[in-house]
Amino acid sequence: MLKGFSLAGSNLRYYRKPTRKKKMTGMSVIVVGAGIIGLSVAFEALQCGATVTIVDRDPEGDKASYGNAGGIAVTEVLPASVPGLWKKVPYWLLDPLGPLALRIGHAPHMVPWLWSFARVGSGSDVARISEALASINSRVYDDLVPLFNKVGLAGDLFRKGALTVYETEDGILREKHEWNAKRALGVEVQELSARDVRDMEPALGPIVKSGVFTPQWSHITDPKKVVDVLRTWLAANGAKILRGQVDRVFLTSDGTAVALNGGTTLTATKVVIAAGAWSAQLAEQLGDRMLLESERGYNTTIAAPGVTLEREVIFADRKFVATPLSVGLRIGGAAEFGGLQSPPNFRRSKALVKLAKRYLPGLNEEGGVEWSGHRPATPDSLPVIGRSSLSPHIIYAFGHGHLGLTQGPSTGKIVGDLLFDRAPGLDLSPFSATRFSVRKGKRNDSPDLFLH
Ligand SMILES: Cc1cc2nc3c(=O)[nH]c(=O)nc-3n(C[C@H](O)[C@H](O)[C@H](O)COP(=O)(O)OP(=O)(O)OC[C@H]3O[C@@H](n4cnc5c(N)ncnc54)[C@H](O)[C@@H]3O)c2cc1C
């Protein structure tokens, strides 16, 4: 058994704590979206003294934040598009239940996104993006732990690291560029033999030949519990939570407003758009072109899996994960690009359980609950966090892809800084809304749109 791993906080570099924090009142904020990002923004705005209204078409309902894998994946500091990825993509696409799928009917809509994704992986952008990801991920525990403590989730975070496992002894060597790049950004990496791996996770079968332990990673009890507890806490502490579909965000003579489907208009000093994979529609009405796609993921949660894992396990050769949640063992992954309207294909969930059985021979496959959700994916794997180009009073917080749970509380803090005109402790230019293009010519036709 390997002993002595430091499970201390993620000491990744880059984050500078802001030096000032002032409590302000008199500001009202509408947050569009009650996923982990919107709720985290609402938490911070409320803490800073704002009057907060959260609007969601289904505040308690299913969403990416409710069914994800539950990993606090602070060590994921590389973009999805890295040099060499394109050699693997054709094989993945040819496998009907492989880790990557592109629905043919949606492909023409995705050309600009795919082009941008390909460009990211072909050049020096990788280093720049990785530094930006590290700048957020290095502050995650500073932001997440106080939020969890405050709302009653202190016991729901397990700082046990994660285990990446390979089917070959030289698995880590094949990915050495990625691991070296992570090390250079402050990620702690421990190489393990097959025996070390099984000492840590005895449920893993002989197919596993080597592994890597990343102690800074952690996981939570249950993502649904986290959003439920946070939403309930916000409601109990003064936030208004409204059910409604936001059709339009616009400026008024003295602030901002959102128009709901059905005719209601709500006004506030500032609006934050945190509508996950649906955010692009609202941003584009404001003139900001977004490259944002739904990257559908799948999983199955087995309440009585018959095996025990201590920590999240990442199956690197097959691109899926298993997390021991309080609701059962959650086995999931896959990246399916088919737009927001296409129906889920739950054969992917089933295929992942079959794969998991190869690694976890004692796995009981029966009784699993299948789920699927839309990751809000940008081509450069960076979220959009910043002011809209139309007005500093409309702020974006979406596009967190695979890392929304991880980066939610930090995004909330950063948006809090923007709302209250404080300097955030990191360079926000890589997250800018304008990085995908200059402003579109077509703008929202509201007559009072350009007052600010
Ligand atoms: C299979 C899978 C596994 C994942 N695993 C992890 C993980 O281990 N760790 C991690 O950090 N991240 C993980 N993620 C990613 C993470 O779940 C997402 O990045 C995150 O949940 C996005 O949160 P969000 O608040 O932006 O969006 P969502 O959770 O999708 O919430 C958006 C909300 O906006 C509302 N909305 C949208 N449009 C409107 C509108 N016009 N009017 C009103 N309401 C609107 C929706 O109803 C929804 O409630 C995973 C995702 C998937 C799919």
From TrEMBL:
One of its GO terms (cellular component) is cytoplasm. The keyword Signal does not apply. Signal peptide: none annotated. Keywords: Membrane, Oxidoreductase, Transmembrane, Transmembrane helix. It holds the Pfam family DAO. Residues 29-418 form the FAD dependent oxidoreductase domain. The chain crosses the membrane at residues 24-43. GO terms for molecular function: oxidoreductase activity. PANTHER family: GLYCINE OXIDASE (PTHR13847:SF289), SARCOSINE DEHYDROGENASE-RELATED (PTHR13847). This is D-amino acid dehydrogenase, small subunit. It comes from Rhizobium mesoamericanum STM3625.
